[in-house]
Structures are given as C-alpha cells and as structure tokens.
Amino acid sequence: MEDIKLNLPNCLKCNSQYTYQDGELFICPECAYEWTVDEQVEEGLVVKDANGNILVDGDAVVVMKDLKVKGSSSTLKIGTKVKNIRLVEGDHNIDCKIDGFGAMKLKSEFVKKA
C-alpha cells in the first residue's frame, strides 16, 4: 500500500504535523485544537521560533545564543528571557523591550519559546 501525504496545514496552536480534516474543520489530535480554513487564511503573519513553535504576541522567549547588539559594546547573553514580545513584519520579526538594553528587534531564529 502506498502512503499518500495530503497537503494539510500544521496545527496553528502547537505546530503538529499530524492534523486531519473533518468536514470544514481541521483538527489536531495532539492538542485538540480545531480551526477552519478561514482562520488559516486570517493567520497571515506566522512567526516560528528556532524549534518550529509558532509564536504569538505576548509570548515569552529565551535567547539561544549570544547576540551582538548593534551600536553597543555589550552582548545579549544566551538564556536571557524576553517577556511580552510583539510580532512584526520584516527580517527582525520580534519587537521587544529587554531590561538593561531597552527597545530591540530580534530574529525569531535565535530564540525559543519559554
């Protein structure tokens, strides 16, 4: 028997690849999240962390490697927790405030969801 992979979207909540469709609903068996095709289109800006987890406004993230800060001689150390992020369009798609550094933009590929 041949395995047939349908082009179903990953779960919008937990990013699981094991989603299935039941009528007009998509369902995730791992977290039990249900959504419609309309919600999939409305999602628009989808930002994922270094592990592939979907980030949303207000999440907390942890920096995964030392990052040089432009215009400063200091670096943002690995393990720094950043709370209450905001997602934006562009290369640096996380807008946040970091204690000791102030307002900053980060790339999602260098953070993981806390």
TrEMBL record:
SUPFAM superfamilies in UniProt: Prokaryotic SH3-related domain, Zinc beta-ribbon
Pfam short name (any one): Zn_Ribbon_YjdM
Record-linked InterPro entries: YjdM, YjdM_C, YjdM_N
Residue intervals of the Protein YjdM C-terminal domain: 47-114
Organism for this UniProt entry: Lysinibacillus telephonicus
Full protein name: Alkylphosphonate utilization protein
Similarity comment text for this entry: Belongs to the YjdM family.
Domain named Protein YjdM N-terminal: residues: 8-36
